[in-house]
């Protein structure tokens, strides 16, 4: 996207947010639970990105998603650290299977982690297909202009009927 002189560009402070500092194994282990925990801010962000087509208008929503992820990781560390660590260790340790990151062989530890999340967060693990469902989002965001981004005609064009 090229910027013109009169377009608003966000400052570095607006676009810089603390990153989630977790390994790929830990992120894979926690992804479904975090996705469900942060479902509302994630849907708001994706709705903003889809409807506006302008990432600058969605910076706040993006920060809200990251903030939610940080919040969830901190709470998991406080309440379910042992179950989470055992589960990620299982995913990372691969002598009994060829596919790294495979959930095969770690289902008991995954269930223990899911049970800890249920007891401490009152959140069940999302069933298969949960994130693929079509869901209607209730939002306070204004509806986008359907012609946004479309060129406006500079002069009225008259069409005459053909012969």
From TrEMBL:
<dbReference type="GO" id="GO:0005739">
    <property type="term" value="C:mitochondrion"/>
</dbReference>
<dbReference type="GO" id="GO:0006120">
    <property type="term" value="P:mitochondrial electron transport, NADH to ubiquinone"/>
</dbReference>
<keyword id="KW-0813">Transport</keyword>
<keyword id="KW-0679">Respiratory chain</keyword>
<protein>
    <submittedName>
        <fullName>NADH dehydrogenase [ubiquinone] 1 alpha subcomplex subunit 8</fullName>
    </submittedName>
</protein>
<feature type="region of interest" description="Disordered">
    <location>
        <begin position="136"/>
        <end position="163"/>
    </location>
</feature>
<feature type="compositionally biased region" description="Basic and acidic residues">
    <location>
        <begin position="153"/>
        <end position="163"/>
    </location>
</feature>
<dbReference type="InterPro" id="IPR016680">
    <property type="entry name" value="NDUFA8"/>
</dbReference>
<comment type="similarity">
    <text>Belongs to the complex I NDUFA8 subunit family.</text>
</comment>
<keyword id="KW-1015">Disulfide bond</keyword>
<comment type="function">
    <text>Accessory subunit of the mitochondrial membrane respiratory chain NADH dehydrogenase (Complex I), that is believed not to be involved in catalysis. Complex I functions in the transfer of electrons from NADH to the respiratory chain. The immediate electron acceptor for the enzyme is believed to be ubiquinone.</text>
</comment>
<keyword id="KW-0496">Mitochondrion</keyword>
<keyword id="KW-0249">Electron transport</keyword>
<keyword id="KW-0677">Repeat</keyword>
């Amino acid at each position: 996207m090229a910027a013109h002189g009169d377009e608003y560009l966000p400052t570095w402070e607006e676009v810089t947010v603390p990153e989630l500092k977790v390994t790929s194994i830990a992120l894979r282990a926690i992804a479904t639970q975090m996705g469900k925990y942060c479902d509302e801010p994630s849907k708001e962000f994706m709705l903003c990105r889809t409807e506006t087509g302008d990432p600058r208008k969605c910076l706040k929503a993006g920060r809200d998603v990251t903030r939610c992820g940080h919040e969830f990781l901190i709470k998991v560390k406080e309440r379910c650290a042992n179950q989470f660590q055992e589960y990620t260790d299982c995913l990372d340790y691969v002598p009994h299977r060829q596919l790294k990151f495979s959930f095969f062989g770690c289902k008991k530890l995954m269930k223990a982690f899911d049970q800890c999340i249920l007891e401490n967060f009152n959140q069940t693990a999302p069933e298969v297909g949960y994130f693929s469902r079509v869901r209607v989002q209730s939002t306070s965001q204004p509806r986008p202009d359907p012609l946004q981004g479309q060129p406006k005609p500079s002069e009225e064009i008259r069409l005459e009927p053909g012969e």
